[in-house]
Predict the structure.
Amino acid sequence: MPWRTESVMDQRVEFVIRAQRGEESIAQLCRDYGVSRPTGYLWLKRYREVGRISDLAEHSRRPLHTPGRTAAAIEAMVLQLRAEKGWGGPKLAELLGQRGIKLAPATAQRILKRAGRVVKPVVEKTTTRFERAECNELAQMDFKGEYTLSLKEKCYPLTLLDDCSRFLHGLWPLSSTGGAGVKQTLEGHFRAQGVPLSILMDHGTPWFSTTNQHGLTWLAVWLIKQGVGLRYSGIGHPQTQGKVERFHRTLKARTRHRGAPTTMPEWREWAAEFRQEYNYERPHEALGMKTPAAVYKAVNLRPYQEQPREWEYSGGVVKRLNTQGMLYYKQQNYFVSEALAAERVRVDELEDKLVVTFRHLTVREIDTRTGRSTAVLLPVRTAEPPLKV
């Protein structure tokens, strides 16, 4: 079944590429992308000013300068007094005033909050929840830390949770966080149950690498070939994966209550028992006290491809990267990604830039003047191509 993945950023990149070709009018392109002509010209102006498609992203509204901010020396005094006294902002402001330093109580309190010195008050749970509208539009995947077993072995439970229904697709105790074990586990699940449209993960092994800028690993490339849209949580923001993080709290508490398994066979038995209980017996407050199984529907799933189809690119120039993930283009070599070694990519020329796309993801922007290669990793608005005959 055809499927589409698109984003605001993707529209801007594609809009600029088509506009620079000069084959269509700006007015027609604006109609195609559903934007006003002032917005279209703004995208073009922004690209022409900076010369990089990565700068087509939404700009921060934060001011470049904050002249009204309290001096660093005064902030340091507030924090030092906080460490000594443990007082709140108003009391610290009063103490500083006695020493001849005028500071508003609210300002002192903001300094403490920025430094993480204020304990958040207990508030009622929010009634507004954010989730995908249908099952299997997005799954959240993560490891639940590690458990120490007997004989100094380690157990790393791997979790795959549906974002919409909280249905626990799998809880697999693995002996390591290596990619081989994760791939073998997911393969078995995908063959039996199907492949979700997208997966949300953190910036950890084995699905993210910190050594190649955009994080692509061979495991991530394998998921891309299955048509999975990759989503990564914000760095330092575990709340992005709030549902799987909350699930791990439940798993930790329930495992402690039951008594943590001490061997891998016992862990596998407990994981199956817990999954049954979590999906079919345990009422979930976020689901109106229904169980995840009562809400879950097996929709939006694609069959697992034992041999992923060859991708049919439209437009651009199709090239195959070498075994080091380098692109040879017009007698020059440019780095793209080691994880994409020997893979076919599409190359679009945009003035003095090369835009490199792998399947449904734009992965690189290369400056042909300097040879600088910048990671992008943006979804490309496209339909899945037909099977290559």
